[in-house]
Specification:
binds galactose-uridine-5'-diphosphate, 2 domains, globular, two-stranded parallel ribbon, 17% strand, Rossmann fold, 10 helices, alpha/beta, carbohydrate metabolism, binds nicotinamide-adenine-dinucleotide
Length: 322
């Protein structure tokens, strides 16, 4: 039976991937320090509670599980906090990954999939963004992810080590049965906050800028359903198991949705008007970001199936309602 160690499997994206990995008949063990994750999200495998910054703990977990591959989701990912506390981000995201990779090579575990991000591209020079777009992150979070991508590439050149880095655009939506969903604290992501505006009498959802050069003045982003992300991770692992070489893939739909369109979709899902205000732009927000994900289609045969914005928002609404 294929065995996987999943770091960060108690988090939002990781838990949805564990669900699909278990459905595929794979044996899943989660390694997570629960710093931003949730014990109750670990429903498809065992949990080893541990921190990647603890070298002994991760080495012990790798030795115990003897995984065929590692799916590495564990990271801190709040852009704003990474600007005020860069040391925490570099330590956790870069040193944590180095500890993991050293533990893997010491135990001859040679395959990894890694959660990267469109934040490694920085301010886009052209659209849609393909994998060859220059990478020039504009915050420490994005830099920490780019550093890991470079370490992975160097490791792959030097050792018997193959990886796939998946650069997600905006992960969104929730499990169709509402067992798990997006739960970040504090929450900064647009869909959960718009839903809060529809659910709570004392929360007003603020559109951060309506004077961008986009079709309705609000920012365009490429929202990809977490279950589509999970499918891409499963395919990336299959690719490595079949002997595929190290590679990097964008994961997005190629279509952009504006913040106003999100607000409209939330009103439709909830059946009530949203308490809404217009605020100033958030520093560092580019007007539009969307992916060219054709490489994932060509090599992995991956295409989004659940990422229609209505489906994304409805699944998120059902999870938050529960
Ligand atoms: N959510 C998005 O839109 C998005 C977009 C692009 C990339 N990503 C990346 O995807 C991954 C998952 O994101 P998410 O939204 O599910 O975040 P999340 O915070 O829900 O999950 C991260 C998990 O990692 C764990 N973790 C963090 N540091 C750890 C450490 N040192 N040791 C052990 N466990 C640790 C946390 O407890 C948590 O369970 C992250 O690497 C993130 O950078 C997310
Ligand atoms: O209350 C809010 C929150 C967000 N937005 C807008 O909604 C859009 C999406 O914002 P999110 O914070 O949901 O997502 P980002 O595009 O900023 O973030 C994504 O890209 C980041 C890097 O840039 C990280 O990778 C992050 O994890 C990922 O979700 C942005 O235009 C933002 O200005 C609002 O209008 N109101």
């Amino acid at each position: 039976m294929t065995k996987l160690l999943v770091t960060g499997g108690a988090g939002y994206v990781g838990s949805h991937c564990c669900k699909l990995f278990a459905d595929a008949g794979w044996d899943v063990t989660v390694f997570d320090n629960l710093s931003t994750g949730w014990k109750e999200f670990v429903q498809w495998g065992d949990l080893i509670e541990g921190d990647l910054l603890d070298r002994d703990a991760i080495s012990k977990a790798i030795d115990e599980v003897k995984p065929d591959a590692v799916a590495h989701f564990a990271a801190l990912s709040l852009v704003g906090v990474s600007v005020t506390s860069p040391e925490t981000y570099y330590r956790n995201n870069v040193m944590g990954t180095l500890n993991l990779m050293e533990a893997m090579t010491a135990s001859n575990v040679s395959k990894m999939i890694f959660s990267s991000t469109c934040a490694t591209y920085g301010v886009p020079q052209r659209m849609p963004i393909d994998e060859s777009h220059p990478q020039a992150p504009i915050n420490p979070y994005g830099s920490s992810k780019l550093m890991v991508e470079r370490i992975l590439a160097d490791y792959s050149n030097a050792h018997d080590f193959e990886y796939v880095a998946l650069r997600y655009f905006n992960a969104a939506g929730a499990d169709a049965q509402a067992r798990i969903g997006e739960r970040h604290e504090p929450e900064t992501h647009v869909i959960p906050l718009a839903i809060r505006g529809a659910m709570s009498d004392d929360y007003t959802f603020t559109i951060l800028g309506d004077d961008f050069e986009t079709r309705d003045g609000t920012c365009v982003r490429d929202y990809i359903h977490v279950d589509d992300l999970a499918d891409a991770h499963k395919r990336a692992l299959d690719y490595l198991f079949k002997g595929g070489k190290s590679d990097v893939f964008n994961l997005g739909t190629g279509n952009g949705t504006t913040v106003r369109e999100i607000a409209n979709a939330v009103e439709k899902a909830s059946g009530k008007p949203l308490k809404l205000a217009i605020g100033p732009r958030r520093a560092g927000d580019p007007p539009a970001l969307y992916a060219d994900a054709s490489h994932a289609k060509t090599v992995l045969g991956w295409e989004p199936k659940f990422s229609d914005i209505e489906n994304i928002v409805n699944s998120a609404w059902n999870w938050h309602k529960k």
